[in-house]
Write a structure and sequence with these properties.
Elements (H helix, E strand, L loop, with lengths): L8 H4 L6 H21 L9 H30 L1 H69 L1 H7 L21
Helix pairs in contact: 3-4
Length: 177
C-alpha cells in the first residue's frame, strides 16, 4: 500500500520544508502590504502605530547600538583607555538606560491607545443604553396604564386586591405545646 501523504522531498534526501515557515512568510508578506496600504491612508481611521510598534522598537534599538558603537570607535581613536572605558562601561550602561526609556515610552503609548479603544467601546455602549432607556420609559408607561385596568389582574393571575388578602395569623408559643 502506498502512502499518499508522504513528502516527495523524503525521496531526494533533502529535509522537508515545514508548513509553519511558509505560513510565516505569507503572514509577513501580508503584514508588509497592509503596512504600506495604511501608511498612505489619508483618512486616519485606524491607529497604525499599534501595528508598527515592534518594528519601531527594533529599529530604535539598532540605531542606539550603532550610535554607541560609533562613539566607542571614536573613543578608541582618541585614546585606548578612553575606548576601553566607553566599550566596557559607558556604552553598555547608556544602552541599558536608553533601551529602558524607549521601552517605557512605547508601552505608555500602547496603554494610551488601548484606553482610547476602550473609551470608543464605552461610547458605543452609552448610545445603546440611551436607546434602551427610551424603551424603559415606554414600558413604565405601559405598566402604569395596565395597573389601572381592573380586569387585567384577573387575566394576568396577579395578586388579589388588598381588601381580599388574608392577614397571617400569629402563633402563640403556648399553642405549640
Amino acid at each position: 500500500m502506498v502512502d499518499q501523504k508522504r513528502d516527495s522531498s523524503a525521496d531526494t534526501g533533502q529535509p522537508p520544508v515545514p508548513e509553519k515557515f511558509n505560513e510565516k512568510i505569507r503572514r509577513g508578506y501580508f503584514w508588509v502590504v497592509q503596512y504600506w496600504r495604511e501608511l498612505f491612508n489619508f483618512k486616519f481611521d485606524k491607529y497604525m502605530i499599534i501595528q508598527v510598534m515592534p518594528g519601531v522598537y527594533g529599529i530604535a534599538l539598532t540605531a542606539i547600538a550603532i550610535g554607541l558603537l560609533y562613539l566607542c570607535v571614536e573613543a578608541f581613536m582618541a585614546s585606548t583607555w578612553r575606548g576601553i572605558f566607553y566599550f566596557f562601561f559607558a556604552a553598555p550602561l547608556t544602552f541599558l538606560f536608553a533601551a529602558s526609556i524607549l521601552r517605557a515610552l512605547l508601552e505608555f503609548y500602547m496603554v494610551v491607545f488601548k484606553i482610547s479603544e476602550h473609551v470608543d467601546e464605552l461610547v458605543g455602549l452609552r448610545d445603546t443604553v440611551d436607546r434602551l432607556s427610551g424603551i424603559s420609559d415606554s414600558v413604565d408607561e405601559m405598566v402604569a396604564v395596565t395597573r389601572r385596568i381592573p380586569f387585567w389582574r384577573a387575566l394576568s393571575g396577579g395578586s388579589p386586591p388588598r381588601a381580599q388578602r388574608k392577614k397571617p395569623e400569629k402563633h402563640n408559643k403556648s399553642d405549640n405545646k
